[in-house]
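Before relying on records like the one below, remember that each one covers exactly one chain. Contacts with other chains, cofactors or solvent are not represented anywhere in the record.
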Amino acid sequence: MTNYYIVAPTSGLYAARLGSTEALSGIIIGMTPWAALVSSILYSWWANHSYKSALIFASACSLIGNVLYALALPCNSLTMVIIARLLNGFGGARAINRRYIADVFTSHERTAASVAFVTAGALGMAVGPGVAAIVGYLDIPENTYWTEETAPGYIMFVAWTVFFVSAILFFKEPQKLTALPPSSSSVNQNNSHDTMEMQPLLSNTSNGNSFKQTSTPKTRVSRLALSFTAFFSNIPVMTTLFIYFILKLALECILSSAPSITAYYFHWNTTASGTFLAILGILIFPANLVLAKVSRRYSDRYLIIVTLLMLIAGTFGILFYGSDSTTYSMTQYVTFAVFIFLSTNMLEGVNMSLLSKTIPKSWARGTFNSGLLATEAGTLGRAMGDVVISATALAGFDKMLNLTFAPLAFVSIVITIVTWKVYEYLVPVDQDDED
């Protein structure tokens, strides 16, 4: 996440220095999630065979991508910037991480592992713009290669080099739960569900007539079709994935638009906007502590409705209702930007919690697992958010604020109504039951 958001404060200026327009900021940022949409499927499949090689390949893509990003200015090539951000998207390891959690941790351990994963992402979200702001504060003399715009490429190249070497030297392939040998006949049938997770679904040995003899390609296709049908008719799962798409769309809109909007209305430079984004990221931690406490008293579905209402309040509150841009208040923008940012991040926590409790057990692991589906939904939301930012910026920075957040307010109302309509279905299922 650091690699993703470190360019947010300066991407527009980078495009301008390369002879284009600052409106391409959203496109530059958005190349990464669009590439991640494809790479997530690749890495989820790759993780069937090896985590280490997938991580090494991903870090190599990020290494090359950041070098290209840094050298695009001396080469005067906007194309290099676009290719660099695409490579960074292929270097995103979120799908590998989520697949690792799904395959290696038991059902009781996954919640804690997912919380740690989200917290690490939140930290990266804060560190990225923070590093960009620090570069501005240092006021290092610029030259042909080192500028405020190219600095993120060099900094992340060093970080990914450390990770690349560490992955080669220290990462060990884990023993997947699904790969462990079956327990002996002496195992008590009353063992916990976690123990059952550690057994393969089918035995590799044959005793008399093997199941494999009756498992033809036709029957396997039929079972897969039934599985897909059951999945897409699962109301709570589809609702939570749609909410996940919307919240990532809103989050991307507030983060990617902040440098341009604050520069237009308040004349902030990249250092100020980077500091603002870093502070937003830090606010996630106390918000998550509060969420952890209230989640013990209230259900996930209730908290989803509450955070969606917060999102509606934020998207309406941030809009500019006057005609003179000089009357738009910094207090208004900052207050409701915080509303949007915190509501989306808190919504992600409770929404993913409900998803983990309603996802069919058969979709917990495998290539097309729940982690991949959540990653794809969230990544698509971020990618669409960057498209929205670029489109509204091309219409003019004076129109960017309302053209971005007015439709988002409408969409937030729609998803809230839909969630309320299916409220009674948003309940955890018994994971011990067959799906």
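The chain is about 70% helix and 0% strand.
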